[in-house]
């Protein structure tokens, strides 16, 4: 019976979810770093989406993303990606640093929308004593997650819309170029035929 009670207390005290959402402008050849202080067995998730700032633009959206733990080792180190979703469980207490790098020589200014989700383990005496308070806190966390997902979807939709607008613009200008070439070729052929017959008439 004691084991069951202890297990219930552990589960009840185990989980609180923390959520933060951010939008940053990542300048060309720059980087932005943030950190979270975690305890051992805390879980952290970072999701991000890269977008263009200008409507109709669809340039290179690739950036670098990495996370380092308190010992200076990489939890992940991704190169040339435009979105990501990475989760890990902290093995040490301390500061975990995550960075977005836009340092490629062809880089242009980008906008990064990212969410940080964390499952924080707290002791039983630190939890709200009132069950209603616990439920309100859980509901607040869920609403925050829904809001973050909506912002993430908006960013993805804007990125896809920019890509479509850019593609349409390029197709339009290519068609105009082709039409110009056809008109130019037709005029040249008319001129050449007239010149040919004029030469024939002279001869």
Properties at a glance:
single chain; 203 residues; alpha+beta; Jelly Rolls; 4-stranded antiparallel sheet; 2 helices; elongated
Q: How does this structure look, described?
A:
This protein is of the alpha+beta class. It has two helices and eight strands, in the order H-E-E-E-E-E-E-E-E-H. The strands form two sheets. The chain has a four-stranded antiparallel β-sheet, with helices on one face. Strand 4 (63-68) and strand 5 form a beta hairpin. Mean pLDDT is 77; it is low at 1-16. The chain has one domain (2-159): GOLD domain (Jelly Rolls). The protein has helices at 2-14, 131-202; strands spanning 16-26, 30-38, 43-51, 63-68, 74-81, 83-89, 94-102, 110-120. 42% of the residues lie in helices and 34% in strands. The termini are far apart.
SSE layout and pairings?
Layout: H1 2-14, E1 16-26, E2 30-38, E3 43-51, E4 63-68, E5 74-81, E6 83-89, E7 94-102, E8 110-120, H2 131-202
Antiparallel strand pairs: 1-8, 2-7, 3-6, 3-8, 4-5, 4-7
What is the compact description of this entry?
InterPro entries: Emp24-like, GOLD_dom, GOLD_dom_sf. By secondary structure, the protein is an alpha+beta fold. It contains 2 helices and 8 strands; from the N terminus they run αββββββββα.
Shape: elongated
Helix content: 40-55%
Number of domains: 1
The CATH homologous superfamily: GOLD domain
Largest sheet: 4 strands, antiparallel
The main sheet orders its strands as: 1-8-3-6
InterPro entries: Emp24-like (IPR015720), GOLD_dom (IPR009038), GOLD_dom_sf (IPR036598)
Transmembrane segments: 173-193
Membrane topology: Single-pass membrane protein; Single-pass type I membrane protein
Organism: Fusarium coffeatum
